[in-house]
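Example complex used in Figure S2.
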Amino acid sequence: MRRPFSAVLNELPVKATLMKLHLPVLLLASAVAFAEEPPKPKRAVLGLESHAAAQEEEEPLGLEEVLVDRVCGVVVDKVAEGGAAAKAGIKAGDVLLQFGDQKLFTNDDLTDQLKVAKPGAEVKVRLKRSDTLKEETVTVTLTAEDGAAWPGVEWTYAGPEQLDDALAEAKKAGKKVLVGASGAET
Amino acid sequence: MDAETYPHESVRAELAKWVFDRVDVEGERGVAELLQVSAVPVAVALTPDGRVLRRFEGHFQARKFADLLAEVRSSR
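Predicted assembly (262 residues):
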């Protein structure tokens, strides 16, 4: 039989008292949030870290800057192993020039495109190689934010309910549970 | 950890033998507090009844992390 999370809490040598006070509120809050909002669609990701080639992200665009040929490109700092960018052959050091129809001048140009893109979508990315200095166009198949960039590993962001589900699933499957917490910088 | 350790082949193979979840420490203070997350990155191994088996604090090299996970997985 599945044990309620509150029963598990009693056995944890953690801030259980504090949590027992907060848990009903947390569960209520998540239940209300769940009732009012449909589940969030998964965000599309490219699987890389980058910075703008030109340091003009803070400057508002004037007519002149639109008319003259500004420095175009977003430099790839790091590519996640097994991610969408890696699979398309994008490497650290490459400069991304265009994502679909959008020319890339700043990192925001790229993140704005990803906000409206759907996981699974195929997007043509024009880039300049850092080794050959040649321009190429590659096709990237975007992945979903939740773990799809790590093939074979499924995970969700754990809230109290997901943790409860994870413990129940582990019991059923005879497995153990690993909860990983990372900040934005990792 | 997210950039190099978790995506590594050896860690992915090991994680397939676990029920794996992530915590967004900013968004889920409740779970973060429950698991006593005071600094990231951290990974907490639990038994199905919620007992903490081991806490992996800080960065780990991928193969080392996979080995440690396998060790904890086969422990009681």
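The longest strand of chain A covers residues 122-128. Strands of chain A lie at 44-45, 48-52, 74-79, 95-99, 102-103, 122-128, 135-141, 143-144, 177-182.
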